[in-house]
Design goal:
The chain is mostly beta strands and 430 residues long. The protein has 5 helices and 28 strands. The strands form 8 sheets. The protein has a 4-stranded antiparallel β-sheet with strand order 1-28-27-26, with no helix packed on it. A 4-stranded antiparallel β-sheet has the order 4-5-6-7, with no helix packed on it. α1 (2-22) crosses α4 (46-56) and α4 (46-56) crosses α5.
Length: 430
């Protein structure tokens, strides 16, 4: 009897699994089965969950395997081999993360959501709860981070950006009734302690923020940064008016003069930008679509990117029997800026970086785009004017990838892997 009391939870889960497996074909569209699936997905390790998923639907698994024609898996890619290893960081974080994803059907179990950037030979790491760390690359394999004492009080952190001797962090402050977007900065005088000052705080209240990516504005002779703001990704069911409203700061890219703190609108019509890149030639943004329609956009001042009117995705409640599409597909006809590329099926697009030419001769003039739910990296080659994409090579990582940086000193690409709470290290083997 005592043994049963100690293990009753395991027995209950086992019985649910048996029921789920042997009745999957009849139950897979029922609310019961969907709830069971969500519970197991959250509470079991990914390997065990996948094992039972294979047992429950072998036909679907067989189709997936047969669909992997000419697909390469790390350490192999199309042109070169890449050494890939992970450094687990979980022992350093006080706060734990159980799941990620803003829609119920998109939620996936994760260990930690965090961002990375580089200062000198150090990697700076901040999680979405505001825990801040630094580590010298040469100590990275030990996995022991050094805490940075700060005055950060965000409910959720959205980005970490380092430029010259200054650290910028964006995040949400929320009193329960009013959520606002804020950007803070600190000069790097001591890596063990930073005192941040506010350089931007939205006056406009929303129910919740989704992103706040930061980049330096290099192309125009100004001392400015760019900040992305998201529309309401769920509350308005795809009809949020703010991205097209010039009176609202949301669904925009804002320019912030870091000396005067003056704010101006750089572009509008954005849904949810999770990847941002800028140099003296181009500004690129990777933007989450709704149900499909993730975009890669070339950002130009004064342009309107169409959300929520134009998108190659559909609403989450879209039915195949619908007589018409939810959104206008053609951006240009409505005087909106067309994306360079749109992923018709969602990948959960996140960060974008340029690959340094020294990484490998075989990957010259390439960019990397990361994904969350897709768990892939995508190597991309643009034309000279960034008006089209020549090819996309997909590289399966099997982790949600929140952030990317190129670490010049060691010629490596570092990945923020939130499924396992690890830093991934990619090294070319030519």
């Amino acid at each position: 009897m005592n043994i049963f009391k100690k293990n009753y939870k395991i027995l209950i889960v086992f019985l649910i699994l048996i029921l789920f497996i042997f009745n999957y074909s009849n139950l897979k569209n029922s609310n019961f089965a969907l709830n069971v699936k969500e519970y197991l997905k959250t509470n079991l390790s990914s390997e065990i969950f996948i094992f039972f998923q294979v047992l429950g639907d072998p036909e679907r698994t067989a189709k997936k395997v047969n669909n992997d024609y000419n697909i390469f898996f790390l350490p192999e890619t199309q042109l070169l081999k890449i050494d890939f290893k992970k450094i687990n960081l979980m022992k350093n974080f006080k706060t734990k993360t159980n799941k990620a994803g803003y829609a119920k059907h998109l939620i996936q179990p994760v260990k930690q959501r965090f961002f990375i950037d580089q200062y000198d030979k150090n990697i700076l790491i901040i999680n979405t709860s505001g825990e801040f760390f630094h580590i010298n690359y040469y100590d990275l394999e030990i996995g022991k981070l050094n805490n940075i004492k700060t005055n950060i009080k965000f409910k959720t952190v959205f980005d970490l950006f380092v430029h010259d001797e200054t650290v910028y962090v964006s995040g949400e402050i929320n009193d329960g009734e009013c959520a606002k977007l804020q950007v803070i900065r600190s000069n790097i005088l001591d890596l063990n302690e930073m005192n941040f000052e506010i350089i931007f705080e939205s006056e406009e209240c929303v129910k919740g923020n989704a992103s706040g990516k930061i980049q330096k504005l290099y192309q125009i002779n100004k001392n400015s940064i760019l900040l992305t703001t998201a529309g309401d990704v769920m509350q308005h069911k795809g009809n949020d008016p703010k991205p097209q409203d010039d009176e609202s700061i949301y669904g925009k890219i804002l320019e912030i003069d870091i000396n005067t703190k003056k704010i101006s609108k750089f572009s509008k019509g954005h849904r949810n930008i999770l990847g941002f890149y800028s140099d003296d030639e181009v500004i690129l943004a990777t933007e989450m679509g709704p149900r499909g329609g993730d975009e890669i956009n070339k950002i130009e001042p004064g342009q309107n990117y169409g959300w929520p009117i134009a998108s190659y995705g559909t609403k989450y409640d879209y039915k195949l029997s619908n007589a018409s599409l939810d959104y206008k597909g053609n951006h240009k006809k409505l005087d909106f800026k067309e994306p360079i590329f749109s992923f018709f099926s969602s990948i959960g697009i996140s960060e974008i970086i340029k690959i340094n030419d020294s990484f490998s001769d075989k990957w010259k003039d390439s960019f990397l785009v990361a994904s969350l739910n897709g768990k892939h990296l995508y190597r991309i080659k643009f034309d000279e004017k960034f008006n089209k994409i020549f090819f996309i090579e997909d590289i399966f990582v099997n982790e949600r990838i929140r952030d990317l940086i190129y670490f010049k000193e060691k010629n490596l690409i570092l990945l923020a892997l939130e499924t396992s709470g690890s830093i991934g290290i990619l090294k070319a083997i030519d």
